[in-house]
Amino acid sequence: MEFPSDRLYSEYHLWVKLEGDQALVGITDYAKEELGEVDYIELPAVGERLFKNRPFGTIETSKAVTDLIGPISGIVTESNTALLESPETLTDDPYGDGWLVMVEPSDPDEMDELLKARAYEELVKSQSDE
Question: Considering only Cβ atoms within 10 Å of each terminal Cβ, which end of the chain, N or C, has fewer?
Answer without folding.
Answer: C
